[in-house]
């Protein structure tokens, strides 16, 4: 294990797995998963998005987006509406129940983050966040 723990990429992978497991357990009651949350979180930042935009921005396969949006519609958290720019296209928008769900689950997400980052002091947490943000923003898409 020593060689694996010397590999930063592996450590990031392990942290991502643990984070996903903890967050998915918070979502379990709702029947949703972390990928659904990502779609909802993105929709909360805009007035709606085309499915192809969701696919491109979140890095999910277009066919996966269709299923995720279907699930979110069934839960009442998102809906497809006609696009004002193109009647043939539909935009996905967050519903009021979707916003309420996000508020609740964001609190659970904060608890997960705090659990994962418990070994770090506040300054280390800020540094880690800044470094990860820089990698995500400046790295390959």
Keywords, please?
mainly alpha; 9% strand; globular; Arc Repressor Mutant, subunit A; 3-stranded antiparallel sheet; 141 residues
The neighbouring-strand order within the major sheet is 1-3-2
- Parts with pLDDT < 50 across at least 5 consecutive residues: none
Task: Give the helix proportion (percent range).
Answer: 55-70%
Q: Class, according to the CATH hierarchy?
A: Mainly Alpha
Write structural notes for this entry.
This protein has seven helices and three strands. 67% of the residues lie in helices and 9% in strands. It is mainly alpha-helical. The protein is globular, with a radius of gyration of 17 Å. It has helices spanning 2-5, 8-27, 34-43, 51-58, 62-75, 96-116, 122-138, and strands spanning 49-50, 78-82, 90-94. The protein has a single domain (8-116), classed as Winged helix-like DNA-binding domain superfamily/Winged helix DNA-binding domain (Arc Repressor Mutant, subunit A, Orthogonal Bundle), CATH 1.10.10.
In short:
The protein contains seven helices and three strands. The chain is mostly helical. Helix 2 crosses helix 6 (96-116), helix 3 (34-43) packs across helix 5 (62-75) and helix 4 packs across helix 5 (62-75).
